[in-house]
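Z., the sequence and structure:
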Amino acid sequence: MTHDHDLVLRPTEAQTAAALNPPAGRNGGDLVVETLAGLGATTVFGLPGQHALGMFDALRRSDLRYIGLRVENNAGFAADAYGRITGEAAPLLLSTGPGALTALAALQEAAAASAPVLAISSQIPTAGLGGGRHGYLHELPDQAASFRGVVKSVHTARTQSQIPSAIAAAWTSALTVPHGPVWVEIPQDVLLAETLIPVVTGGDAFPDDLPPRPELTAVAADLLSRAARPAIIAGGGVVRADASGKLRRLAEKLKAPVVTTYGGKGAFPWKHPLSLQSWLEDRRTTDFLEDADVVLVVGSGLGELSSNYHTFKPRGRVIQIEADLGKLESNHPALGIHADARLALQALLETVTERTDPTAPERVRDLLSRVREHIAAQELTLEQQLLADVREALPDDAPSFWDMTILSYWAWSAFDARQPNTMHSAQGAGGLGYGFPAALGAAVADPTRPVLAVSGDGGAMYSLAELATAKQYNLSVTWLIVDDGGYGILRDYMTDAFGQTTATATELTRPDFVALAESFGVPATRTTPRTFRDDLTKALAAPGPAVVVLPAVLRMFAPTHGDD
């Protein structure tokens, strides 16, 4: 018997001739870019540095498109968004030491959100590794150790012959569910040295599937089919697996209400009769889920935000479908199914028995009505109107990227994403500065649609340098900056906790954002709540980058936890 994996691909005559006569002038960096191209990459992000120049020199001889940002962390955020939008591994080229470490926060966000990023960093020359000579520029005692607790896997290449296989293994790791960032490092001298290794012409790397165990889905299907009040919590794993259609069919077959986590925005239609939307910080939603006799959790670890700050205490059976083994039953005992969301939902669709429950839509309407009453009683008209204006101005299929700012916190609960994989935020790891550089990566991934980035003035200061990137590549990103004079959400947190703020920490001196954007050649508008919708609509409709600045002090709605 011959198995597929026993087949050996024989080189063509042309490939053999090319292998025997490699072009002159290639170095180790060429092996990097050739391997990436062979694996299917078309675009790389990054920032050059002294030790990494071999890779950047090789880009001149490559068809790969290079997108250079001004800060390594922002390059990582751009690669993260490119990976989310395309589903492909996004190469990120970095230099040694400070350049590599500056990208750590972006890789943490990619890990939390399961975004496939392939970070390739240089290393000090091989003579300094393993306790050799010391005192090299950018030297770290163990650079890879800085990344092992953040990325999915670490790969090293110490010779040129190791480069293609190390990158292919990393590529496979990044795209094996759960997707995530991976790390490859290559010494400077290996990248710079001339190579006689043949041009890399092949690079197929096939990520492993993660199907569910059939005995577990059989039990899950039986529990769901016999449930009196099933409910579903849909997380980011549904979006990453492109499984929203299967989720909807299963929910309709079971007549099961669905709430989406903040990472799962768009996984289920917002206005569907079974949609509980995303009001996870409202105790009424928590009570509804606790009252379910069977809760199906798909693609979520039920972490801090998804569990209403760990106040969710399910009384019924929990079924958890999760591709990340470390998150399986990490917060609640469950029938744990370690699987890709798409494959597991398909298995359940094929095995559950259709339920009838005419009361489910009525119970959903009642819950949402009570949530709306709670919000309406807080007189937060401005905040709700601004969010509605954003929704009206933004095309349904246009992606949006939200930084850690009060309007984003509103959006997590109250924004209708309308389509899956269109709303993204930094709530996975919670770092500032995500929105604008991530939006740039999305615009690179799909230049046919406008992209929206939303930041506060504090978060915007992290990314101002990338206005130059937006202008250089003429990327159609509209950057909404809500200017409230400081770190608004931290101002609120300190006031709630201590009765006052440390003003020197929360109140900020800011530039004139409009004048600053215009100095980069980026058109900018200072708007008001009255003109906001029209100004945002115009900015999104115009090609190229734009900035819209809204001076406004927003308030958060009062969440309800525990017995509130």
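The chain has a mean pLDDT of 94. The first helix runs from residue 13 to 20.

Let me know what you think.
H.
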